[in-house]
Amino acid sequence: MLGHLAARRATGALLRGNGTLYLRDGEVVHAESPVSPGLEVLLTLGGRLPAEGWREAVERAGARRQVARFLVDNGRLTRGELEVYHLGALYDAAFFALAPGSGPARFRSGLSHWLGPVRPVPAGDLQREVLRRRRLLEDLWPHPEVDTAPVVRTRETGSPAPTRRQWAVLELADGVRTPAGIARRLGRPAFHVLIDVRRLAAAGHIRTPAPATAPPSGAPSAPVTRVPGPLPLPPPASAARTPEMSADPDVALLLRIRDALEARL
User: What's the CA angle centered on 43, arms 41 and 48, to 5 degrees?
Assistant: First the structure.
């Protein structure tokens, strides 16, 4: 459906159980998901923007759908900073919105987000990135049950030893919080926390639940028009993979930086 909307150069909101994609002229301009910390969480808990600065922007520019422009014009963020944070939040939320089990979809034409335009992402680039992330998680630890279950530490020492970032996750693993809850507490993208959780599970630091005990996907119960689901996950390649890059040199640079950081996590 996303490809169909992109071909039509549609403007509006694509709603699924685990998130919403906002499109303008067929490109994705924003994404939200209850699983993923929003842009405001990444900015405020990450220490880049005071919470009162974000509230002021929403109160003064939200009704005009120009929050992003307000933040830049008033010196709260540089344009480059806003684009980097927004790109991270968009890809993070879209990963969950387009995930299998996110339920049927519906499109509401004409809807726009109060954040306003930042940097649109071509639908094809977004779909390729979602598949790349799914392959990465599968390669790390092929047990998706750990992604949604409460994170439970084991008594085993495990090997290798956790990194500093992973220790922050383990310190919040109380057997009640899920990876999404830990991501919100830390102010990190939820996908980055999933990477840590899968690596910790593979090393024996986190318990992997049986598939039958995994919680439900949380798909909506309201009847909506059903459309084709997300792209199937391709089989792992035997050789090393090189992620496809956007034709936009600025976006390609950001993606290469992100890939390098993820490889060092």
Answer: 145
Within 77-223, where are the H helices? 79-97, 123-140, 145-148, 164-171, 179-186, 190-202
pLDDT tens for each residue of 58-114: 999 999 999 999 999 999 999 999 999 999 999 999 999 999 888 899 999 999 999
Q: Which of 106, 136, 105, 115 is nearest to 241 (CA)?
A: 136
Q: Which residues have CB under 8 Å from 265's CB, separation 6+?
A: 163, 165, 192, 195, 196, 199
Query: Could you tell me if 178 and 149 are in contact, meaning their C-beta atoms sit under 8 angstroms apart?
Result: yes
Report the distance separating Cα 254 and Cα 10, nearest Å: 26
> Can you give the pTM of this predicted structure?
0.79
167 three-class SS: helix
162-203 pLDDT, tens digit per residue, is 999 999 999 999 999 999 999 999 999 999 999 999 999 999
Alpha carbons within 13 angstroms on the beta-carbon side of residue 50 total 5
CA distance 57 to 64: 11
**Statement: residue 237 has pLDDT above 60:** no
